[in-house]
Amino acid sequence: MTETTPTAAVEQATDPDDTAVLRFAVDSLDALVAFFDTCTRRCRFANAAYASLYGLTSASIVGRSIAEIVGPAAWAEVEPHVQRCLNGERVNYLRTHPGSDGGPRMLSIVLTPYLDATGRTTGLLSVISDTTQRWEAERAVRESEERTRKFAAATEEAIVFHCNGVMIDCNDAMTRLTGYPLDEVVGRNIFDFIAPAYRSTALEYTRSASEHLYEVCILHRDGHEIPIEVMGKTMPQHGADYRIVVARDIRARKNMQEREAFLALHDGLTELLNRRALLDQLSLALAQARGAQTARQKQVAVLVVNLDHFKTINDSLGHAVGDQILYELAQRLRACVAERGFIARPGGDEFVIVLPSASRSAAARLADELFPVLAQPLAVAQTSVSLSASIGISLFPDDEQTAAGLLRQAEAALRHAKESGRGNQQFSAPGMAGEAMAALQLERDLRSAVAEMQLVLHYQPVVHVATGKLAGFEALVRWQHPSRGLLEPAAFISFAETHGLITPIGRWVMLEACRQLKRWHDAGLAQVPVAVNLSAFEFRQRDVAKEIAAVLDQTGLQPRFLEIELTETALMQQSEHVLQTLQAIEALGVGIAIDDFGTGYSSLAYLKRYPIAKLKIDRSFVIDTPDSSDDVAIVTAIVDLGRSLKLRIVAEGVEQADQLALLSRLGCDLAQGFGIARPMDAAQTQAWLEQQR
Predict the structure, then answer these.
(1) DSSP state of 589
(2) Do 675 and 657 touch, CB atoms closer than 8 A?
(3) Residue 550: CA count within 13 A, CB half-sphere
(4) How far apart are CA 68 and CA 64, in angstroms?
(5) What is the pLDDT of residues 353-397, one digit of tens each?
(6) Would you state the pLDDT for residue 438?
């Protein structure tokens, strides 16, 4: 049998119809077919599709050389393949060819040598298939796979491909997450990496082709479990579907959640229980005590520990150092209490210790142990700090039945410990909590008094001793309490000083006194000054000179009509700050007087150093004169001292005519008291002034 080429078959057909049929068959093929003579390398036959590829017809292509048909550029690419075929080799290669739409077409070309009876290559059959669509599809797959590979490499999330649980591939993040290299991951069952407790959940998730987000733990190579968040997707493909699994390491999130849960019940600085957890744990301890069998187990002690003068630490060394100290002291408390109970830090510099099954003596012993432990020096901020503590103790069931009640009783005992000199322990006693509640109510009422304008000023005249003429007024604050009536300063000023309320009261008093005096001056009444008392707390904590200047500017009162009265306590620290403040007040033109002179403990050196204009003799030295020779001697000495220092002297508490006569003989300058005129409200004072015209 001899091999016949398509061209030969066409040429050898004796019947014209056969020739037409053969050409029709060749032209109908999907392939592009052409036959070339090896000697001339010219085309002897080509079907219509082949000729059309190069813009020719079946007739016009015959006789053209391969180089003429494909063009010089393509011939340089094609010639090596043609030469191989001419050498008797069947050649298969790919090349691109411009398409009619301008885009590239991918052609698959098979060159088959035609051999004659002697085995010599006499012809070359070229069969071309257009594989553009398949090439583009494969390219799209390759590009998709490349994008997937790059994405998988770039993301921190672990990506795994598996088919029926057998891992096909994974990214580097998965190998980092498990601790296994790629070659030890691929081919293994994905469920081998799931922690046993979560394996059934993961199996069911995969079997049901679920695609929701869920959490499991995987096993690291070293054996520890890692919580992950997982989502799987089923990817269809021929033969068998596969799953792509994306896993995210959620250790950081879990740690944060655990930290948040911890901080919901613990203090962030010391990691002791916070107030919420304290009340819960104390309530539990009380419930256990109620159901206990022995007398000792039925008892619970609560110790509230507060550091003395801790604010000084924060103010002087800073809050960062204060926090360092609190942390260190918390560790000391832990070591001291150990297994006997639990500790909480409700806030600030206060700690609470709860001792289940503890008697009164056991609570006292622990308190005694705590004092030296807390007092041990701390090395912070390149200095050594020593602190003392005050401790209040309450007992269940003796003092209270509830957790909140026991804490209130212990806090009331703590206040008693501080009032008793600090650095000691005090047990709760009947009435303590009631006193604390009364103090709390007073604080609330006093805040309302400032906000709701319940304060009023009374004015007491000050007269010249020699003539009895008006020399000025002292403004005295009163509280018009809505239920208790008019309250004297003794009922609330000291409380206001210790509870941080004196500043708004002092500001209001100064502003109101200056405003009222200016009204009287504008009404043509006596042009005399008004004296306003300034608390030692206000003097130390405020820029009083600046505030006085602002009040004078706001009210329009001339500075010479305002006097500031200070107690000796305000001047006890002979500091540059005190001197500068007093000098600034004097520079405004405002007078400065020392109130209650003789009752303080300061050195008299301040009389020489500070710009003081007046001394006010305390009423306690005046009230028993002239009958008390000791008091007469004190008043005489103060008057003589003032005269020698060129200071004006004011006697307070004058009630009798013989007292006024004594002061006149001694040469005292000014006097005030019930014997001269009682303090009066603004309306009464105005009426009094109008009578003095």
Answers:
(1) T
(2) yes
(3) 9
(4) 6
(5) 999 999 899 999 999 999 999 889 888 877 888 888 999 999 999
(6) 62
